[in-house]
Amino acid sequence: MPLIHRLLRGQFLRFAVVGVVGLGVDLAVLHVLAPLLGWHAGRVVSFLAAASATWWLNRRFTFARRARSHATARSIGREYARYIVSMLGGAAINYAIYALTLHLLDHPLAPTLGVALGSLGGMFANFAAARYLVFGVAGGGDDLPATAPDGRPGTAAASASPSARMRPLATWPAAERAALTGVFTDIDDTLTTEGAITPDALRALADLRAAGLKVVAITGRPVGWSLPFIATWPVDAIVAENGAVALLPPPPWRPGDSLHPVPPRRYFLRDAARRAANFARMQRVLERIEREIPGARRATDSAGRETDIAIDHSEFTHLDEAAIDAVVALMRSEGLHATVSSIHVNGWLGDNDKLAGARWIVDELWQQPLDTTAERDRWAYVGDSTNDQLMFEAFAHSIGVANVARFVPKLTHLPRYVTQGERGAGFAEVARVVLGVR
After folding, report:
1. Residue 122 has what pLDDT?
2. Does this model's pTM top 0.70?
3. Closest Cα partner for 47 from 2, 92, 17, 10?
């Protein structure tokens, strides 16, 4: 994936934008206080003001997915304390550059230049600290899994409902794992981490297929977005747009074939005329959502969608829970099915969904309609959000990667098992336990 695409889809660009805002706060406070406290003491206060502002913006904007599960005042307080402490390394770099600039330059703009250079020098250290020590797993403690290590319900599950139980992945019986013939998986925040598939998740897909297991990815992402991955990922199929479109890998290139690559094969649930009529109707709904719900914007991958629409709530735009609920309600009032994934609100016309798509593609490829419990028990499903509920309910061998914990209060049907790792690392963990008995 091109570097610029990864940056746009990742956290560093958002962190940099927040840093620019912090720079503005820093400069404003510094120039207000300098006449009273002097440039050095004023700088200490301005740094604390900027750090507080960027902490709030980073938890709401940059690391919203990770921070959203920090529900209590105590956990937020600990997070803030970790943030301030973790910024000390960056602050040392920042202040050293600032002081050096004042020492070397005798100019009215020296304080301003020192702040700018110091902020740039400390940004990389600050990003690493925020990413791994404050909002990430490594800084953790507060992103509680839904089960404790001994299998007792953790805080997230206990607060959701008395019956909320997800078992540690280690308790999955070996005999059940050994009987599997295939694995279904969600993509966003299950295979991917911050928008890109990680090397361990990609290797896990390859290892599963090498062991003779069927691997099918099922996603709300559009067919256009999925096309590059069906040609490069080691999967048997990608079912896109919540079960409406299936993509199969192109045949491998052989000497003597055309130099132009053969495109992946596409299969649609509905004929072209029905798709065109549905598309026109859904575009009108999409325009109404953007017009009537403040902040609602179509997903950036909308150009590649053929059978559904999507509103961004966490990928590049942040919508609060009230706005997400409003989008869902409007879609349903217009006769659309609506579901919320980890990044988008998806809406579509028709009776397709992830479970219907799974049944369809398995029947098409391997003549196994998954109509019976015995047939479904030979498959596992890995997911992370409310968009995976049907699969969690239908498959006894359902697994949530650890970041599913933030959706637990909204899940009617929980996965049976939960990993210790989040996102791609969690999927790799699933692959290891499945392959460990083969």
Report:
1. 77
2. no
3. 92
